[in-house]
Q: What sequence folds into this?
């Protein structure tokens, strides 16, 4: 079966160039980058090269890049590390958006357990936070704010430059989780005006288990990891040299292809979206059309259980996800759609389609051709009342 992969926000397949580079480093550049001999210095050179590529993707200085073991680890080092350094001053209030990934939401829950006050910033039905809401949430003890650059479930892009400026006026540190934007939209950390920014390689055709945290020079971080002095003491532990080198190649290629690839994906995504919304009755897009990352659409199917639709599509060779992949396996409604104020028949019946490099017009045609029939069949098997007759 010719399978169609439409779950690129969960992970992307490493590109051939990435696989080649990872293999070459594993074979030939196996030294410990902290060693002073030839083998160590070759490994160190591989890190330096990758650091330059990752910095270019973010408009950053290479010396400000901290390689991490994942996006989750980057979010943790940023928030726990900043919190630890800020605590001494007694301002222990953190503000994050209600639609963050679990990597941020569960980290602020951990901060709450050690005495931090936390505020979840609401979003409107479009899935976007507002500067006014942030201003209302800020208090004299607010020292840390984290708002994601784009949401992983619905793809909406947040007004980071605006909210970061508000946090700065308030003398609060600002972190953004850019895991879903790195490689998809241009990022310039200076123009965004943020203090810390997290990315993860496997979302842009790099390997899994490697990421980066950009930390503006001068920001004080007390890393939650204790150990050696790697990554200027911000991420102790011998670096995953092969993975990092692979991320470097992925960053270089994402930047080189961005201006041609992203409009291509947007056109495919828009076609898929309009075919579904016109051909399948009882469907609605979740979140605004723009600003959104080019590859993502999230659609609710009335009177359908999302898991059943996912499985039916998988049987046809089409891989999609229900809301966030990280929480699939549970039948919990999406916390993102709930935060947007959508009713239960929208929060439990949503499917995320996230496109990527290998997808073509033919893929979109195949998905749009099978969906109406699958949805009809699933609806005929259930006896749920129509949404309009529900409370
Ligand atoms: C917005 C966002 N943040 C963080 C993560 C976690 O990244 P990683 O899988 O590298 O830990 C993800 C992954 O789904 C994500 O989408």
A:
């Amino acid at each position: 079966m010719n399978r169609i992969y439409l779950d690129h926000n969960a992970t992307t397949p490493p590109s051939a160039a990435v696989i080649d580079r990872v293999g070459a480093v594993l074979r030939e550049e196996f030294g410990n980058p902290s060693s002073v001999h030839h083998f160590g210095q070759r490994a160190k050179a591989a890190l330096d090269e990758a650091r330059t590529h990752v910095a270019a993707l973010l408009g950053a200085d290479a010396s400000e890049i901290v390689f991490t073991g994942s996006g989750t680890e980057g979010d943790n080092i940023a928030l726990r590390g900043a919190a630890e350094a800020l605590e001494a001053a007694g301002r222990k209030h953190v503000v994050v958006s209600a639609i963050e990934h679990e990597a941020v939401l569960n980290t602020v829950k951990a901060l709450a357990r050690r005495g931090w006050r936390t505020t979840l910033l609401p979003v409107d039905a479009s899935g976007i936070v507002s500067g006014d809401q942030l201003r209302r949430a800020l208090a004299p003890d607010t020292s840390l704010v984290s708002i994601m650059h784009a949401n992983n479930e619905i793809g909406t892009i947040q007004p980071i430059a605006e909210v970061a400026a508000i946090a700065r006026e308030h003398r609060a540190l600002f972190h953004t989780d850019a895991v879903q934007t790195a490689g998809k939209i241009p990022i310039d950390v200076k123009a965004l005006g943020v203090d810390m920014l997290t990315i993860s390689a496997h979302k842009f055709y790099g390997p899994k288990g490697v990421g980066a945290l950009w930390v503006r020079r001068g920001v004080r971080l007390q890393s939650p990891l204790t150990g050696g002095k790697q990554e200027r003491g911000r991420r102790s532990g011998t670096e995953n040299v092969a993975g990092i080198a692979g991320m470097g190649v992925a960053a270089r290629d994402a930047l080189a292809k961005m201006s041609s690839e992203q409009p291509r994906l947007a056109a495919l995504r828009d076609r898929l979206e309009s075919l579904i919304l016109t051909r399948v009755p009882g469907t609605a897009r979740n979140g605004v059309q723009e600003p959104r990352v080019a590859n993502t659409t999230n659609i609710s199917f009335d009177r359908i259980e999302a898991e059943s639709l996912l499985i039916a599509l998988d049987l046809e060779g089409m891989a999609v996800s229900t809301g966030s992949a990280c929480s699939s396996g549970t039948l919990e409604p999406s916390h993102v759609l709930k935060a947007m104020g959508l009713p239960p028949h929208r929060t439990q019946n949503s499917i995320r389609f996230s496109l990527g490099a290998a997808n073509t017009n033919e893929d979109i045609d195949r998905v749009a051709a099978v969906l109406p029939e699958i949805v009809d069949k699933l609806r005929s098997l259930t006896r749920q009342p129509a949404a309009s007759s529900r409370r």
Observations:
- The chain has a mean pLDDT of 95.
- The radius of gyration is 22 Å.
- The longest strand covers residues 296-301.
